Recover the amino acids of this structure.
């Protein structure tokens, strides 16, 4: 039972990274991207392929995974610049599906639908981080989440965060105020993609295998649900949302009712969450970030 | 020929997308799943009505009855979804109705999977579908039916939009909602009707496509997405555009596989590729006009 | 000294000449008005001068440079700021934050280096930068008497203050030239009085102002020079006194006198 709960925590961490990325793209910049699963997959496969075919260590594959995902973030960000919300969503959805399709069909590189099965465990200072002994792996994940959280919080509270929000609120006004909208939109995509790539790498050394079937549109929707539930534009909320969604996801197994509750149950619930949250509480459980500026504490400073 | 019939089906479904977009400037993500529901309702009604009857007049009749039932039910479903999940969000943030639509899509497709199981179901042809040779062209009765149904529906829609009062009301609302309201048009009713008609057409498309490709709960997403691409290619918000786009996409897909040798596993990618291409080159679509945001 | 001028600026929209061969001149230090009946092409002219639109023909010169066709954000960084006819505030951001966005490109140890790198830079450097921006924003909030509203969301402000916030945000980018698009729209007489005073204070602070307006009292009162557009063409330019007496201008607004 505890083992199971640890599993949920590990997945919370992995998905939190994606949720944080989604938060940058959607919560801050206001672009409805539905392809986190695609970047997730790219990160996973980068690590898997480099580890199995070239013998790289997990840590060596990490920068490649980030760079590759970010590159794809750039590639999808650039052509979709002019697209309005709805179109962007579908275009990104298409991209995510193309990624999955390619991974499924490019047998020589990705081993097709069977995927890559023997990903070696990550090691640190010579000791293996065994995903079966969950505590160790969880610790690794938490470290990543903490780093990501602080990194992105810093970013959000800076000029860049404000610029992204300005773009979300009114692109034309933002451009007229001196913000290079194109640059920021693309960078936003790259950041969101990069952190999803990290999540992917973690996934690869957790599952010790990668298959295209894992990286479906459902994953992207789950990530979306996480930030909608938690609160768009709030990184802590993204983590909270991740936790709740994972709980829902594993609810049947947690309560031992998996024979009674069908697998579609959680997906219906996710759908309901999206609809209900949008109508009833669009700012999410935790609401948007606190407005730091303007709220004086000492002498006009934050 | 295959390309044309496939295109006809895409056109039918694309019309629903384009009509809703024309009025609300909103892409109904759940449209694809409505076509799935239509396919299932059609399937069950048809199987229920025909019993074990041999292929003949009764099966064909019951097939068309089933189609009408599906169209009606989906029309209602479309209106209900609009009222419950989209109407409250009409003045909300840009992303809100879109997220809601994704939610509805998920609810529909997974409820169907729960209720009907994930196995695909065969939708038998109501007639003997052996190909006929018509003046040298080999064509199946099914393809004739698709072309006929698609043509009738599209012509019917065109007449409706052009000549009837309600049709005019729809066009007015899509051009300028507030002015339409001031002119006494009940915008809510127009919107409901738009959803109803679009959904009914989708149901037809769903039934027609499941005759060839079977019915399964997630068919909505793929087919819906392709129909969406068709709508965009033709020019979203534009009824003639949807028809044109559907046909183009159908042809492209069939030729892509047959002539260019794109592996069938990647067939779906053709649609996405076309989408990205058109969004890059001419996002308003072939028959659309660029909408400039007024500063 | 001429700060900005257009040379034969033309903007065509599918056969319609929204702006037709206009030579618009702005003298530094003065308040210039741009008037004309609705649809005369004033906002289009603005858009073409501020980088939100690209002219079909003609050029725009600013401060000795040719800025024709440059994107809006570059033009802003060169020293032109603007407000909008329909008020474009960042609604979900606070007043203070709106103005801080105005200061966006003004700081940073190295303005050429990516702001991204700056963000991941040391905590203290970033904090200093933020405090610096906030101080600047405070300055403009005081200028526009918006200090009490600093933590209010922009969307919750009363209308008159929203207009002022938009101007404040524009001023925060430290422009040499400020374009105001119908700043008095929807204002009552007191608010208009206050606006006139504010614009004069802006002029006194060394910023050249160009404004599109329909409120003739405001225009005639504070503008040093007025250019009149009609159907996309420049039909008159001169002092308020000259414009008031100009028969073509009168005809444009009131129509031809019936004989």
């Amino acid at each position: 039972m505890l083992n199971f709960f640890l599993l949920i925590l590990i997945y919370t961490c992995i998905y939190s990274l994606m949720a944080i990325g989604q938060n940058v793209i959607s919560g801050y910049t206001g672009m409805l991207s539905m392809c986190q699963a695609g970047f997730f997959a790219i990160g996973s496969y980068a690590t898997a392929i480099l580890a199995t075919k070239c013998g790289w260590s997990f840590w060596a594959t990490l920068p490649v995974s980030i760079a590759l995902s970010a590159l794809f973030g750039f590639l999808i960000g650039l052509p979709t610049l002019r697209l309005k919300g709805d179109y962007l969503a579908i275009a990104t959805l298409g991209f995510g599906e193309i990624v999955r399709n390619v991974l499924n069909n490019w047998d020589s590189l990705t081993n097709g639908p069977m995927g890559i099965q023997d990903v070696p465990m990550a090691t640190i200072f010579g000791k293996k981080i065994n995903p079966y002994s969950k505590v160790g792996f969880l610790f690794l994940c938490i470290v990543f989440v903490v780093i990501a959280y602080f990194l992105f919080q810093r970013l959000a509270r800076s000029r860049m965060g404000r610029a992204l929000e300005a773009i979300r609120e009114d692109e034309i006004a933002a451009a007229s105020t001196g913000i290079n909208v194109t640059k920021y939109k693309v960078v936003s995509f790259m950041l969101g993609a990069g952190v999803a790539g990290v999540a992917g790498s973690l996934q690869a050394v957790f599952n010790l295998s990668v298959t295209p079937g894992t990286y479906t549109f459902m994953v992207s929707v789950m990530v979306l649900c996480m930030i909608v539930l938690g609160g768009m534009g709030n990184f802590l909320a993204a983590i909270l949302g991740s936790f709740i969604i994972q709980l829902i996801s594993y609810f049947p197994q947690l309560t031992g009712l998996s024979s009674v509750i069908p697998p579609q149950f959680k997906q219906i619930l996710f759908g309901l969450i999206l609809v209900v949250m949008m109508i009833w509480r669009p700012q999410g459980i935790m609401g948007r970030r606190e407005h730091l500026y303007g709220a004086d504490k000492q002498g006009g400073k934050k | 020929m295959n390309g044309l019939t496939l295109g006809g089906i895409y056109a039918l479904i694309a019309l629903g997308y384009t009509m809703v977009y024309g009025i609300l400037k909103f892409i109904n993500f759940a449209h694809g799943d409505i076509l799935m529901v239509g396919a299932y309702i059609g399937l069950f009604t048809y199987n229920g009505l025909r019993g074990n009857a041999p292929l003949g007049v009764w099966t064909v009749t019951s097939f068309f009855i089933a189609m009408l039932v599906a169209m009606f039910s989906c029309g209602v479903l479309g209106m209900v979804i609009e009222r419950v999940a989209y109407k409250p969000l009409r003045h909300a943030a840009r992303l809100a109705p879109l997220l809601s639509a994704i939610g509805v899509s998920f609810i529909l497709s997974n409820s169907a999977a729960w209720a009907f199981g994930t196995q695909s179901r065969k939708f038998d042809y109501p007639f003997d579908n052996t190909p006929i040779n018509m003046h040298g062209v080999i064509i199946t009765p099914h393809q004739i039916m698709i072309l006929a149904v698609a043509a009738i529906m599209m012509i019917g829609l065109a007449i409706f939009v052009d000549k009837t009062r309600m049709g005019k009301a729809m066009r007015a609302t899509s051009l300028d909602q507030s002015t339409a309201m001031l002119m006494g048009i009940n915008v809510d009713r127009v919107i409901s009707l738009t959803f109803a008609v679009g959904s009914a057409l989708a149901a037809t498309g769903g039934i027609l496509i499941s005759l060839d490709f079977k019915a399964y709960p997630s068919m909505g997403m793929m087919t819906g997405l392709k129909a969406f691409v068709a709508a965009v290619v033709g020019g979203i918000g534009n009824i003639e555009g949807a028809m044109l786009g559907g046909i183009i996409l159908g042809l492209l897909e069939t030729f892509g596989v047959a002539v260019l040798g794109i592996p069938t596993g990647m067939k779906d990618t053709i649609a996405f590729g076309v989408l990205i291409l058109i969004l890059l080159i001419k996002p308003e679509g072939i028959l659309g006009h660029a909408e400039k945001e007024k500063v | 000294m001429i700060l900005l001028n257009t040379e034969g600026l033309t903007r065509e929209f599918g056969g319609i000449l929204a702006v037709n061969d206009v030579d618009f001149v702005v003298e530094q230090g003065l308040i210039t008005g741009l008037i004309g009946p609705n649809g005369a092409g004033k906002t289009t002219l603005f858009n073409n001068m501020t980088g939100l639109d690209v002219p079909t023909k003609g050029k725009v010169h600013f401060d000795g440079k040719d800025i024709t066709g440059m994107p809006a954000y570059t033009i802003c960084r060169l020293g032109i700021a603007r407000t909008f006819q329909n008020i474009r505030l960042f609604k979900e951001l606070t007043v203070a934050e709106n103005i801080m966005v105005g200061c966006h490109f003004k700081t940073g140890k190295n303005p050429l280096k990516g702001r991204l790198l700056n963000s991941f830079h040391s905590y203290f450097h970033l904090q200093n930068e933020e405090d610096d921006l906030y101080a600047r924003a405070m300055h403009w909030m005081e200028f526009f008497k918006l200090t009490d509203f600093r933590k209010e969301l922009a969307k919750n402000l009363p209308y008159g203050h929203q207009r002022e916030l938009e101007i404040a945000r524009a001023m925060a980018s430290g422009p040499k030239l400020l374009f105001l698009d119908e700043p008095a729209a929807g204002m009552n007489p007191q608010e208009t009085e206050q606006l006139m005073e504010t614009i004069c204070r802006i002029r006194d602070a060394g910023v050249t102002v160009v404004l599109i307006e329909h409120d003739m009292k405001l225009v005639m009162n504070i503008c040093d020079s007025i250019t009149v557009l009609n159907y996309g063409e420049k039909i008159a330019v001169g002092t308020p006194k000259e414009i008031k007496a100009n028969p073509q201008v009168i005809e444009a607004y009131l129509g031809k006198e019936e004989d």
Q: What stands out?
A: The first strand of chain A starts at residue 122 and ends at 124.
